[in-house]
Amino acid sequence: MDLLLDLIATLSRWSRSHLADISLAIMATLFVLFGPALNAWVQRNIAPFNFVLRTLAFVLFCAIVYGLGIIYLSPWLAQGLAQFNNYTLAPVLILVLFIIGVVADRN
After folding, report:
1. Is the pLDDT reported for residue 1 higher than 80?
2. Cα 8 to Cα 91: distance, rounded to the nearest angstrom
3. Mean pLDDT of 32-36
4. Alpha helix (H) ranges present in 1-107?
5. Residue 42, CB half-sphere, CA atoms under 13 Å: how many?
6. Which sequence spans correspond to the domains of the chain?
7. Rg (CA), the chain
8. Which pLDDT does position 97 carry in this prediction?
9. Residue 23 in contact with residue 77, Cβ under 8 Å?
10. CA–CA dist 107, 103 (Å, integer)
11. DSSP, residue by residue, 61-85
12. Cα–Cα distance between 101 and 89 in angstroms, integer?
């Protein structure tokens, strides 16, 4: 049991030093998974506009939502993940990545 706890603590310490990159990867993956549904919703809502306004609105939406989401939500996610201690961070990250994998497989 001590070996397992030591492994978890070691993985958590390693993960803690890379939380910014891990949270960026999680956010990017979530945007890739849920982006098509979000894009379809936006396209349905801007369908009545003419081509130029539709294109401008879609480009602005993508730049604002995806760009600012990656820039501002990733550090928040990293700060949230940093709140876990060394015995819970690695299992939480493994669970999050597993759930993302299941959602990706279903899509």
Report:
1. no
2. 7
3. 92
4. 2-16, 19-45, 51-62, 74-82, 89-106
5. 18
6. 2-106
7. 18
8. 94
9. yes
10. 6
11. HHIIIIIIIIIIIHHHHHHHHHTS-
12. 18
